[in-house]
Write a structure and sequence with these properties.
292 residues, alpha/beta, Rossmann fold, Cytidine Deaminase, domain 2, 2 domains, 6-stranded mixed β-sheet, 5-stranded parallel β-sheet, 11 helices, 13 strands, globular
Length: 292
């Protein structure tokens, strides 16, 4: 047995806390291929249904931290990964068990700030209770966006300039812990992501076009996604998937650019086919110099 295999065996199964979308299963499958046992903890109201035959799973609600600790320890889990789409919950959406009630003062402080501030606080709670929080990319490095195009469509020079502007803008607003995405078209910023998330931002662009507030440009614009400067990369890396292709197409955009090595891509083969079908580009780009 190799040292890596021995370490994986000694560490016990990986606890995967699942939000929505296909990424949780992609990470679980990658961990299993690497010789690691996996136990899923899907979050009610967010996670998609998961076939029982795939992995052991224990459904949890927000605020069930004490229950998670008991079940995860009984399963022998020490390492934890958070992965999948998840809207930031309101404090009133928590259904706290006794352990969570004890942590409520700290949780309230965590909610006073941006998403990265909140997620760092969540990670610290898990680590204070003996768990080790890993980034999904540490378990499944193949889910990271590669540099270069996926599919056959390429951005033209105008779209390349929009990508550069989007990266510069995201880097500039990064210290404010706002969002990870922006839409730029012909040098004009059409939308910036905030609390609503990427899909809702793209829906806003779609509605603005439909209402005549944004005309269709000669060269279609781009969605740019990048990790925040100094963001904890263990949690909430920007991600794109096949659904992003559909929402980009409906918003009248020409493509997607995401930072290579620091964004997550779900089902790249399927994304390449979808991008070619919708005649949009998907490309991994280098981060801005400040972010690097």
């Amino acid at each position: 047995m190799s040292k890596d295999s021995q370490r994986r065996s000694d560490d016990g199964p990986l606890a995967v806390i699942c939000g929505g979308g296909s990424l949780p299963l992609a990470v679980a499958d990658a961990a299993q291929r690497g010789g690691r046992g996996v136990v899923l903890f899907p979050i009610r109201g967010w996670a998609d249904p998961i076939p029982l035959a795939r992995y052991r799973q224990h459904w949890m609600s927000f605020g069930n931290f004490g229950s998670f600790c008991r079940v995860a320890r009984a399963e022998g889990c020490r390492d934890v990964v958070f992965i999948g789409s998840l809207k930031r919950p309101g404090i009133l959406q928590l259904w706290p068990d006794l352990q969570t009630l004890r942590l409520l003062p700290k949780i309230l402080r965590m909610f006073r700030g941006g998403d990265d501030h909140l997620l760092r606080g969540v990670a610290s709670i898990f680590e204070d209770h003996g768990f080790r929080v890993l980034g999904a990319h540490e378990v499944a490095p193949e889910i990271l966006m590669p540099e270069g195009p996926i599919g056959s469509v390429r951005p033209n020079s105008s779209q390349q300039a929009d990508i550069e502007k989007g990266l510069a803008l995201l880097d500039t607003i990064s210290p404010f812990d706002v969002g990870q995405a922006v839409v730029v078209e012909s040098g004009r910023v059409l939308a910036m992501e905030a609390a609503e998330g990427t899909d809702a931002m793209l829906l806003r662009v779609e509605q603005l076009r439909r209402n005549g507030h944004i005309e269709h440009a000669a060269v279609r614009g781009v969605l740019v996604k990048a990790v925040k400067r100094a963001q904890s990369r263990r949690l909430d890396l920007p991600s794109i998937g096949p659904q992003t292709i559909e929402t980009v197409g409906r918003a009248g955009l020409g493509g997607i650019a995401a930072t290579a090595g620091s964004a997550i891509i779900a089902q790249p083969e399927r994304m390449g086919m979808a991008a070619d079908r919708e005649k949009v580009f998907v490309i991994g780009v280098r981060a801005s110099s400040a972010e690097q």
